[in-house]
Each structure stands twice: as structure tokens, then as C-alpha cells.
Amino acid sequence: MIRFTIDYPKAFAKEYGLNAYYAGLHWSVRKKRADAWHWRVRAALKEQNIRPRVFQKPVRITFWWDDRLDIDNHAIAAKCTVDALKGCLLADDSRRYVRAVEHRFWDKKCIGVEIEEISKEEMR
What global pTM score does this model have? Predict the structure, then answer.
């Protein structure tokens, strides 16, 4: 299991909330924001001394949020995080490797991420 945290950027809800994407952002703005998020995730891993170690078995990724967004409004930030983990902690983000994504709230003023291998029974 690997756990790490990501600091919130200043305009998190405005830039990474799902509602912002429904507003019709130009593809180049979405790309710029995704690239910035990928950098943020990789920097968090480096700061927390989490070395690349690609999980070979299927995993569950759990996110903990502490912001004002509705729980289902975190899809973009979660997707950008998972994409940033490809090649570093995840071989790929296909269903072969990522079998579940969960979202929860906590009171820690940052985003929590946990990657955990799951058993064959849990894959059913």
C-alpha cells in the first residue's frame, strides 16, 4: 500500500471541479491544467520520498478530499491524479490494473491518496 498527500492549489474548485469542465473549457486550457496537475502529483511523490514502484496486481485507489465540492465533483482531479501515476506507480489505468476508485471526505486540509492491491475476491 502507498499513501501520499497533495496540497490544494489556490483555485482548485474553479480549475479542477467537474462543473468547470462542463462550462466548456477549450481543449488547450484543459491540457494546460492537466499538465500542471500531473506535475503537482509527481512533485508530491518526490517530496514524500515515494519512489517509483509499479503495482503488478490490480489496485483500488482511494481519494480523501477536504474542500467545498460535492463528492461527485472530484472526477477531473481524480482522473488527472491517476493519469500522473501511470508509469510511476501504475502500469496503466485500464481495468486490468485499476479496479476501483473511491472518494471520501476528511478534515486534513489536503488531498489524500491511497493505492492498495486488491484480492481476486474483491475484483468480483
Answer: 0.90
